[in-house]
Amino acid sequence: NNKQSSLWISNNLKPAQSVNPNEASEPIVPGLILSAFDINLPFTHWKDTQYTATLRSRGRGVHFFEAINPTSGEPAKVIYGIDRAYGALTEATYYNQTGKITRTLKIENFAKVDGQWIVSTCSIRDEATRDIDVLKITDAAVRINLLDHTFSPDSLVEKAKFPSPAELQHL
After folding, report:
1. Which of 55, 93, 109, 155 is the most buried (most CB within 10 A)?
2. Angle CA(69)–CA(72)–CA(78) in degrees, nearest 5?
3. Residue 21: helix, strand or coil by DSSP?
4. Quick one: DSSP state of residue 38?
5. What's the per-residue H, E or C state across 109-163?
6. pLDDT per residue as tens, the chain (171 positions)
7. Rounded to the nearest 5°, which phi and psi values hold at 24?
8. Which distant-in-sequence residues (6+ apart) come within 8 Å of 85 by Cβ?
9. CB proximity list for 66: less than 8 A, separation 6 or greater
């Protein structure tokens, strides 16, 4: 996909505002570490990406890649791992312009929902403060039909349709 992704935020059903890519690293909620950058994983699509090695990480074979940020923003580069057998992201380490590690993202667990594997737990660590946020998905729905309009910034002023109890699976 050659399209450039965009980030839009709407608080309290107010009209959506486009987020500057340099602001994507700001916490999604005050007091958290987790940012839209951590969820969107744009580094997996940066053009200046090179394979560096296949190593063992947490007992699994992992292909590592170094991705250079195409903008002058932070992080300057990200080294991330893709599980050799499953092709899933396992971890990512963010570096600043001086080569210092600033954040570490780890995929902790996966869960199978309606035959599809999804991330069920991930953590992000701020290396300067050593604070850690853990995102744990407790219920999920996959293979549900969403209208195209769902992905339009204009739809952010509407309350999202929550999946029915029959569509949700407890993890």
Report:
1. 93
2. 25
3. helix
4. H
5. EEEEECCEEEEEEEEEEECCCCCEEEEECCEECCCCCCCHHHHCHHHHHCCCCCC
6. 345 667 777 777 777 788 777 778 888 888 999 998 999 899 999 999 999 999 999 999 999 999 999 988 899 999 999 999 999 999 999 999 999 999 999 999 999 999 999 999 999 999 999 999 999 999 999 999 888 888 888 888 888 788 899 999 999
7. -65, -20
8. 60, 61
9. 49, 50, 52, 77, 78, 79
**CA 26 to CA 7: how far, in whole Å?**
12
Round to whole Å and give the CA distance between 34 and 16. 20
User: What does residue 56 show for φ and ψ, rounded to 5 degrees?
Assistant: -95, 135
**Locate tokens 């312009």: which residue?**
97
The set of residues, in sequence order, having a beta carbon less than 8 Å from that of 128 and lying 6+ positions away, is 102
